[in-house]
Amino acid sequence: SILGENVEAHIKVCPFLKQAQALMLQPFYKKGINSGSEEVDSVLGSVEEVGPLVNGSEDIITSEMKRNAVYKMSVFEFYELIRKIEAVYMSTCSDIRESFKEPEACGIWMNREVDRKIPFQEKHVVQQVSILGNLEEFGVLENPTKMDSVASSEYANKRPAVVEFGAGRGYLTQTLADCYGIKKILLVERKSYKLKADRSLRQKESLILERLRID
Question: Residue 149: is its pLDDT beyond 60?
């Protein structure tokens, strides 16, 4: 918290503001891209009713503003919102099947042959390994351990870049880099973490890593 009389002076040195301004200059930045549509506006109501403005911008809708909008709903409006969510879920997710995979490429993680400085929780590793295993089954990833020397060399040259949205602490990408040899990584996450996985990834030879703190 900052006293009102100190706000103007703080703005001049605020590191978060400088970071936000730097992001706004990037070619991929588009103000209000995740603010929602007219239907969302009808749920949230006017910005003035939902909550305070952020940096004077009406295009930015924060989590706090969304919570306030939910708290202001009547019982009928709240259940109507739940009905809409369930209807969308049923229309798009009715054919989801359970598929657990344990690919050969992820053996070093399943066997705990990894950097001991990286937190290891079996339930998280199993989930991450299965995600990558399903991606491999769909043909998105290629298992480098199954390639001959020629194919492996070709794979190294065409190795894709990976952009992970909602990257969190980055452990899924850590597993991906360890097991599939990905060399170009962009992590996108609006929250700030201790970034232990980032430090481990930056130690990998010829790996290019960038993290953006943006929504």
Answer: no
